[in-house]
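hiii, so i know i said id send this last week but things got crazy w the move. better late than never?? heres the sequnce for the chain we talked about at the cafe, plus the structure i predicted for it. fair warning i was half asleep when i ran it
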Amino acid sequence: MVNYRVKGRRKAAHKPPARVRYEQSHPTVSCRLSKDEYDLLKLCLDDLGGVSFADFVRDSLKIVQLRVPETREIKEKARKGGYERGKKEHQIWYYCNICKQRIDVEPNDDSHKAMISFMEEHGWGHTRCHE
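okay and structure toks below
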């Protein structure tokens, strides 16, 4: 249907409901490229056998989705490595008086609470606070 004027204003052409639903479920995507970038894109698409820009984007999204699990695995490995390094460098521990094996102190466990109360009873604190 053709646009027509109503008292100096244009009235938008009527779109069938199916067209409205399609446009809502398939939004338009656009971007601005420099002339050089655009020419390079066209050349790449031609080298791929005349692939359309939309197909190129769809295929790129599939490749990205395949890489996502790899990224998650890398992040999880890095997190575990950092946690273990931090635990090794900063964890509080002491040796058993009988078997001489190391005992790691977990936050808020009985050993941790005993250390805190020992230090409070014996007046442990910052050097500058005791001066």
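btw Residues 34-90 form one domain. thought thatd interest u
miss u guys!!
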